[in-house]
Amino acid sequence: MSRIRTARTVATLLAGGVLAAAVLTAGQPAASDVAIPVADVAPTTEMTNVPLTGSAGEPRPGTTYGKAEREIRVERNTTGTFRAVSLSWEKGVRLDHGAHATVRFHRNGEWTAWQDIPLGGDQDSGEAKRTGSGVFFSDTADGAQLRLTTEKGELPRNLRLSLINPDKKPEASGSKGTQRLTMKPAAAVGTAGASAADRLEPVVHTRADWGADESKADPGLKGMDTVRAMVVHHTVNGNAYRPEDVPSLMRAIYTDKIENEGYGDFPYHFVVDRFGGIWEGRRGSIAASPSASPKAILGGHAAGYNTGTLGVATLGNFEPTEEGSAKPEPDMLNGVRDILAWKGAQYQLDPKGKAVLDFAGQKPKTVDVVSGHRDVYATLCPGEDLYALLPALRQQVADRMAQAQETAGIAPAEPRARR
Asked: What tens-digit pLDDT sequence spans the chain (419 residues)?
């Protein structure tokens, strides 16, 4: 297929509830348009939404169900290049268990192979206003083709495909995204204090480091009294990113969660990339502690169990696929261990213990202090290959905390349920 200057989107709905969409946009950006971890100006994020179904789940005008071998197409205008796609739909509408989405990208005049898009979003989050697949990340592309198949032949209401470019170069003047993307040296944290928590503090890149547009998030901080449990997630965006891609990924997820799904801010408190880098997600998560105000930050990561929990997301997808397992790399696991040990020490948690969580209108739930998302919500998150490692991770976090406590002259805490 030849490249075109005027963008178009082609959506195709086939028999059996198969929706296919192709989006073609303008040419590739120059290398200077792509963000790297250290830059003079933080890029802005641009998102183009392509409506696919209406308020009753019907295909948009010009797109209807068809019999075998029949397809009907619809064109929609869009602009710009992009690096990520996502699907979102009306909240409260669940895709059937047989739903399957695949996407392929158009770049350098060719189409990539088809890739699966995970569809297991947090469909009951109290903060979100829509449900979504999460961001699927790619190298810069000028087109995408999407196929969505549902077993029962029903499509979710108000379904849309979003094309996200987190590396749009801001205008020379009047730009809001002027933060410098700097990285903290390792010696800057974790060595000055005498307490166990001070000694455990790792390098954490701030929101300014990944170029958060603070005007997108709700103003102020949403606080809570304490943290009782820490919940591990995965972001399902794929695992083949480079170090310089991480700030772009963070901006793409941030924009998708706020502008597509209606979150007030980044849903997770912290994100750990596959190279072991730790990034602040939700505003205020670094500074919050029992001696600060607020003492803890209310996240948007665990549906009804956001209160009393801290969300740490791994940047990737760790659910096995037909291609095999997707185990997280050691550097990533070390980063997760370090952020859990630091925050666990701050809130005096026992990483091998239990916690009691409250959900309005339901019975209190007892979970592991270090839990997976699936322990508090019906989801595959954080993926089978990561979830299987949580017992070993709890032990590693406990060992790290115990070592810091001994060094600081503090005896390790006795196991107990936090409430």
From this structure: 333 233 334 444 443 445 555 555 444 333 333 333 444 567 889 998 888 888 887 777 645 444 332 222 333 334 568 999 999 988 877 776 677 788 888 888 888 888 888 776 555 567 888 988 889 888 888 888 887 877 776 778 898 889 999 998 776 544 444 343 433 333 334 444 568 899 999 999 999 999 999 999 998 888 999 999 999 999 988 898 999 999 999 999 999 999 999 999 999 999 999 999 999 999 999 999 999 999 999 999 988 899 999 999 999 999 887 666 789 999 999 999 999 999 999 999 999 999 999 887 778 899 999 999 999 988 889 999 999 999 999 999 999 999 998 877 655 555 444 44
Cβ neighbours, 10 Å, residue 297: 23
**What single letter denotes the amino acid at residue 349?**
L
In a domain, 61, yes or no: yes
Assess whether 162 and 216 both reside in one domain.
Answer: no
| Total number of domains constituting the chain | 2
Our measurement of the distance from residue 300's CA atom to the centroid of its chain's CA atoms, rounded to an integer in Å, reads: 11
What contacts 347, CB < 8 A, 6 or more positions away? Answer: 226, 227, 228, 289, 290, 296
Domain identity same for 195 and 101: no
Whether residue 122 sits in one domain with residue 252: no
- Tell whether pTM > 0.85: no
Q: 163 and 193 share a domain?
A: no
Backbone angles phi and psi of 257, in degrees to 5: -65, -40
Report strand pairing: 100-107 vs 115-117.
antiparallel
HSE (CB half, 13 Å, CA atoms) of 218? Answer: 18
Residue that is written with structure tokens 């005896």 in the block: 411
Query: For residue 293, how far is the Cα from the chain centroid?
Result: 26
Parent domain of 15:
8-168
Q: How far is residue 8's CA from residue 328's CA, in Å, rounded to a whole number?
A: 37
Whole-number Å distance between alpha carbons of 398 and 270: 19
